[in-house]
Q: What sequence folds into this?
């Protein structure tokens, strides 16, 4: 066994001449362990929220979405889009026309996003899994046009899942001049009926603003015949999304953007990553403060073992060997604290996943989930361990360096 490590281990676990040194060493281990545990739990909670938000988006967003880089719309029969549709990995392709409009129902009105989709939209996404009401996901029947609003939009406009009257939709005329004597002539007006359902993605962006309807209705309302604002795709089971996305980007060139689910919500996930990083930085500062206990413990140990150092020198030990003994001492404290902290953190995460020990609120149903979501990522555990060890090793270097002088 390495001589310096063997002696350092004996120093760490043996009884000191002054009991307070043992106490401070134990406090050092506990301090590092608590800071490590806090890192594990906090980052895992951020991961839990990240995964939860991602699961909400997958019920509405397509696997891949193709949008023009310039302007709002592009020709639906563009050869580039046709080539992408014909790729063997594509299972479902849906044309979409999406734009802002004014919705009026009775005395209530709101600015909304009208999203016109093909009839195969339910095959593209998991929309049928987030519907509420006694009807079906139906967008048109003969000459009738139906609209499925988000649940919060329906509440805002006093719509039930099966409203009775027409929901009027207004959009600005794309061509011609506005007659100030008759301002209403500057708008295209159309109406939607209820299919008896509303959707709930549990994200305000969709639930508060969106109405899903047929693409024919949206094209007529916005004057976009033969155009689309996006082409949304679902791939066949087993397809490599990253490889297909790369191939589509080569076909699209600079004319179209090809985004997966996470890239479609890039702003949301970027904010969550920044918040997680800031939490990591703050907790690392707390870890640095906790490591000051190691400095105190090591300094007192060095003072306590002065006679032992003289004996080791008389036996032929070099100054380098003696320095390594105390370096190992401090490093063992940081490693033991890191291991215990990670184990306790993982235990707390498991208990939270299993039993939901910490709830989000006292009112049942007030939140999307009842308890804080937790998701442990192995890469985070590795980063936390390396951070704790690095900070611990750095904190040991200063007192040993002064001792060596």
A:
């Amino acid at each position: 066994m390495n001589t310096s490590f063997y002696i350092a281990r004996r120093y760490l676990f043996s009884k000191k001449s002054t009991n307070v040194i043992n106490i401070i060493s134990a406090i050092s281990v506990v301090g590092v362990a608590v800071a490590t545990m806090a890192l594990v739990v906090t980052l895992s909670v951020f991961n839990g929220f990240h995964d939860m938000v991602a699961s909400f988006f997958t019920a509405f967003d397509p696997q891949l979405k193709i949008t023009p880089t310039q302007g709002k719309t592009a020709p639906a029969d563009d050869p580039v889009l046709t080539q992408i549709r014909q790729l063997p990995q594509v299972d479902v392709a849906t044309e979409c026309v999406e734009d802002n409009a004014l919705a009026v129902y009775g005395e209530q009105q709101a600015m909304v996003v009208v999203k016109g989709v093909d009839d195969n939209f339910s095959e593209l996404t998991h929309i049928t899994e987030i519907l509420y009401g006694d009807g079906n996901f139906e967008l048109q029947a003969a000459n009738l046009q139906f609209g499925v609003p988000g649940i919060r939009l329906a509440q805002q406009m006093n719509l039930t899942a099966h409203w009775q009257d027409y929901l009027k939709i207004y959009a600005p005329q794309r061509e011609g001049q506005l007659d100030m004597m008759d301002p209403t002539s500057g708008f295209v007006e159309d109406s939607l009926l209820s299919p008896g359902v509303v959707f709930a993605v549990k994200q305000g962006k969709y639930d508060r603003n969106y109405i899903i309807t047929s693409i024919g209705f949206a094209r007529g309302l916005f004057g976009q015949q033969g155009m689309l604002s996006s082409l949304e795709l679902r791939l066949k089971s087993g397809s490599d999304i990253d490889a297909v996305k790369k191939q589509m980007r080569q076909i699209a060139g600079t004319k179209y953007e090809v985004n997966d689910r996470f890239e479609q919500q890039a702003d949301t996930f970027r904010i969550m990553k920044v918040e997680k990083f800031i939490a990591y930085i703050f907790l690392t500062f707390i870890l640095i403060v906790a490591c000051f206990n190691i400095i105190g413990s090591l300094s007192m140990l060095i003072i306590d073992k002065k006679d032992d150092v003289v004996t080791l020198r008389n036996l032929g030990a070099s100054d380098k060997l003696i320095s390594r003994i105390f370096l190992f001492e401090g490093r063992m404290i940081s490693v033991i604290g890191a291991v215990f902290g990670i184990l306790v953190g993982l235990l707390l995460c498991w208990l939270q996943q299993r039993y939901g020990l910490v709830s989000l609120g006292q009112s049942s149903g007030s939140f999307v989930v009842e308890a804080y979501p937790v998701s442990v990522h192995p890469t985070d555990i590795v980063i936390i361990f390396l951070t704790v060890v690095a900070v611990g090793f750095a904190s040991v270097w200063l007192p040993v360096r002064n001792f060596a002088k």
User: Anything to note?
Assistant: The radius of gyration is 32 Å. The first helix runs from residue 3 to 13.
